[in-house]
Specification:
By secondary structure, this protein is α+β, with helices and mostly antiparallel strands. Helices cover 59% and strands 7% of the residues. It folds into 4 domains: 89 residues, no CATH class; 40 residues; 186 residues, no CATH class; 83 residues. Helix 9 runs antiparallel to helix 11, helix 15 packs antiparallel against helix 16 and helix 16 crosses helix 17.
């Protein structure tokens, strides 16, 4: 408890040191309050631009606050330009730690000095982020690689900050009437889980390997190969990727990259990860994305940093796809019905009222490019609507919401005229057709085949035994014959049940397919 209290004091001290209070009240009509604060805390120096002070405060407070700044840096529609430009430096220019510590970490994890492991090793890091930093190196066989090394002392720092978040969530749960719907404890717990997952670099390497396999035949996304002989929980070695950071628009244009296509490809990559794979990169800020300018792979995205990924089960994917598709078709009644059917909205909710509220939130943004849409206002209206109808926040979708904001922020930078809805709608319609059409039925039958494979081979033998034992036996037959009769009746019942359930299964599946196709308009 003492450590938590000291951490809270540090947060307050850093906020005061860099004048974050002055930034917070700058937009309010309280000039006297601001002047009074400056008079009382006369010894601090807040002459630096407010963006610089905010970035420095987040860096000093540690990785959780740095990640918060990274998310803010993609929201140019919500955050003033001077703050966003400075926060963008948090993407890959966090102050590095001493290279001697990195070398010691490598030697401790891989049981050899970098000079023994690599043909060359660059002591100066090429990038430094909140969790780790990266050094370029060359393997003995000449392959160029990137060596990612975990920052020392990360677990202790994260544990302290997350502990404070858990305390705050507990307070909210006790004093805020809206806490049942927002589930602050569950949301913090989900964030805690994913943040600690980032501390295990072997998990990150496995995530990268899975994503690389998912997009092995893709012409849209490239993922670096992992070299498993050089990987541990605190050090991983991967293929070095060459490209231009996606945020450097001038360089991309000079290289001849089609920004409109790049923006559209980003939308397709996102929906492919979410709906096809249920496995998505959940930290897609500009510092983690490059664009290839190599002639063989020109214009493809390059994904980096796989510490945080999200997963969705079949129920989540079905719910999201129905909502997205109904949303794109402006079928607000179906959006309302999906919320109630899934249990996210109370079952007593009136469909027509929820439909009307969703329409009021969403209708103003259709047929308009990203540059003309204020997502801040839309999100505020949706939040107010969810509160009114007691729609519960789903913790498992927190990462998806964060990723969607990142994608929208990237799209805004690459192509402000992008119509997000028209770009995504054809892909979702195709995906839904595959799920509720004959192709989807066939794929699910193949998936279920192993479960019933041990039953089907027995059917001929059971039918044969039934034919041999057919007919009623006289009452004066022996014990053996009576046992055969009992077995015959049992076999007949088994065959009848098997045929009945097989027929019911086929008819039921066909009925569900026809209903789904009718429901979704296919």
């Amino acid at each position: 408890m003492i450590l938590k209290f000291l951490r809270l004091l540090k947060i307050l001290r850093v906020a005061t040191k860099y004048g974050l209070d002055e930034i917070a009240i700058a937009g309010l009509k309280v000039p006297r309050t601001a002047k009074l604060i400056d008079t009382l805390i006369f010894w601090r120096d807040i002459s630096a631009p407010r963006g610089v002070r905010l970035r420095m405060a987040l860096e000093e407070l540690g990785p959780i606050f740095v990640k918060f700044g990274q998310v803010l840096s993609t929201r140019r529609d919500l955050i003033p330009a001077d703050l966003v430009d400075e926060l963008a430096r948090l993407q890959d220019r966090v102050p590095p730690f001493d290279s001697d510590l990195a070398i010691a970490q490598i030697q401790r994890s891989l049981h050899a000095h970098p000079d023994q492991l690599f043909a060359t090793f660059e002591r100066t890091p090429v990038a430094s982020a909140s969790i780790a930093q990266v050094h370029f190196a060359t393997l003995k066989d000449g392959k160029q690689v990137a060596v990612k090394v975990l920052r020392p002392g990360m677990k202790k720092s994260i544990d302290e900050d997350v502990a404070l978040m858990h305390i705050a969530a507990g307070w909210i749960g006790r004093i805020w009437a809206d806490s049942k719907r927002l589930k602050p404890k569950e949301v913090v717990g989900e964030f805690d889980k994913y943040l600690h997952d980032e501390l295990d670099l072997m998990r990150e390497a496995a995530n990268a390997s899975q994503l690389r396999r998912n997009f092995a035949d893709s012409n849209l996304l490239m993922v670096p190969e992992m070299y498993w002989d050089y990987c541990s929980s605190s050090v991983i070695v991967m293929e070095r990727m060459h490209g231009i950071p996606v945020s450097q628009i001038d360089r991309l244009e000079a290289a001849g990259v089609d920004l409109k296509k790049l923006s559209s490809d980003g939308v397709e990559i996102f929906f492919t990860q979410v709906f096809r794979d249920g496995f998505f990169h959940a930290d897609m800020h500009p510092g983690n994305i490059l664009v290839s300018i190599d002639p063989a792979t020109f214009g493809r995205y390059i994904a980096l940093d796989f510490g945080i990924v999200g997963t969705l089960n079949d129920f989540d994917k079905d719910y999201l796809s129905q909502n997205f598709l109904a949303f794109f078709r402006r079928d607000y009644k179906r959006v309302a019905e999906a919320h109630i059917e899934s249990g996210w909205a109370p079952k007593e909710t009136r469909v027509d009222e929820l439909e009307s509220a969703v329409r009021a939130c969403c209708e103003p943004i259709f047929d308009r490019p990203l540059k003309d849409i204020s997502f801040g206002q839309i999100l505020l209206r949706l939040f107010q609507t969810s509160r009114r109808f007691n729609v519960e926040v789903q913790p498992q979708l927190v990462l998806l919401q964060k990723t969607l904001l990142n994608i929208e922020g990237l799209g805004r930078q690459l192509d402000p005229d992008l119509d997000l809805w028209k770009t995504a709608k054809p892909y979702l319609e195709k995906w839904m057709a595959e799920q509720v059409g004959w192709k989807g039925l066939w794929e699910r039958l193949k998936a279920e085949a192993p479960r019933y494979g041990h039953i089907i081979p027995q059917l001929p033998r059971l039918v044969h035994r039934a034919l041999l034992q057919g007919g009623e036996a006289p009452s004066n037959d022996g014990e053996l014959l009576r046992e055969l009769i009992v077995e015959q009746r049992r076999t007949n019942r088994l065959i009848s049940l098997a045929v009945y359930f097989a027929g019911a299964f086929v008819i039921g599946m066909l009925g569900l397919q026809l209903y789904a196709r009718w429901r979704h308009g296919f």
